[in-house]
Design brief:
164 residues; 0% strand
Length: 164
């Protein structure tokens, strides 16, 4: 893992996060407050950036995103993201406590379901029914796929093209 962060790619990633607000908004059964959408987008975007670029890049990305928040102060967005992360951890612990070893595809579906439930709990807690989560699943996968493809595109972009 390189010690230096590519500033061009970091700025490109930070500058394009807000284009995914409508994609993340489409996940929800009804439209939640804008600050909840922004926090959910930051949560997904930074998590996928960690997967694509690594932990250090994701940490720097979160710092670069803070002055760019549109719907709330950085403290409020960070607090909402922290609540989502804490709910997700609690749901994971609950799953581990409840279940025995499962096949990988079942574990993956359970993880996605936990992420959806954590996002719903932050934005519209009354929508956390099993049927709602099941209906949201394909829209969530589509949003994640689009964000990840975008971040992979930034990662694969040649350095000399990004300078111009």
């Amino acid at each position: 893992m390189p010690l230096l962060i590519n500033k061009l790619k970091l700025n490109a990633a930070a500058g394009s996060m807000h284009q995914f607000l409508p994609v993340v908004r489409s996940i929800y059964p009804r439209i939640p407050p804008d600050e909840a959408i922004e926090a959910a987008t930051v949560f997904l975007y930074a998590g996928l950036a960690r997967e694509v670029f690594g932990r250090r890049f994701a940490h720097h990305l979160r710092q670069h995103l803070q002055p760019r928040f549109k719907f709330a102060m950085a403290v409020e967005i960070d607090l909402r993201v922290l609540r989502i992360e804490n709910r997700l951890e609690a749901l994971k612990r609950e799953m581990e406590r409840r279940g025995a070893e499962s096949p990988p595809h079942v574990q993956s579906a359970a993880h996605v379901t936990s992420v959806i439930r954590a996002l719903l709990a932050e934005a519209c807690p009354e929508s956390d029914s099993r049927e709602q989560v099941k209906a949201i699943f394909p829209r969530f996968e589509e949003a994640v796929r689009r964000i990840k493809n975008h971040l992979l595109g930034i990662k694969r972009q040649p350095r000399f093209v990004m300078k111009s």
